[in-house]
Amino acid sequence: MEGMKHYKGKLFRDILEQSGFTVAYDGDMKDGKPEGYGRAFYRDGRIYEGEWKDAQPHGQGKLYYANLNLWYEGEWKEGKREGLGTSYYEDGKPAFAGEWKGGKPL
């Protein structure tokens, strides 16, 4: 894609820091923003790992609690849980499996 910057790398305390939520991002980037596959490390200890589009979780991804137990795995759209996915309690037991819309289970 001519005229567009594409690179892989780490972004610390920069673009994502401005949102007030993320401490660090490690993954694919385009025009200085997360795009493709990467991991975000949040201030509260959560970790998102998966696909990104326009600097937001979008596509398949997993969100982990600070204790590294899985919190949610499934589809994301524009930063919200959307489509098929499974959420888990902090102890790792399944909480909900099914359809999500706007970040909420249906």
Automatic annotation (TrEMBL):
Gene3D superfamilies for this protein: Histone H3 K4-specific methyltransferase SET7/9 N-terminal domain
Domain of life, per lineage: Bacteria
InterPro entries per record: MORN
Record key words, sorted: Repeat
Keyword Cytoplasm recorded: no
Xref: SMART domains: MORN
A GO cellular component annotation in the UniProt record: cytosol
Protein name: MORN repeat protein
Organism, as annotated: Syntrophomonas wolfei subsp. wolfei (strain DSM 2245B / Goettingen)
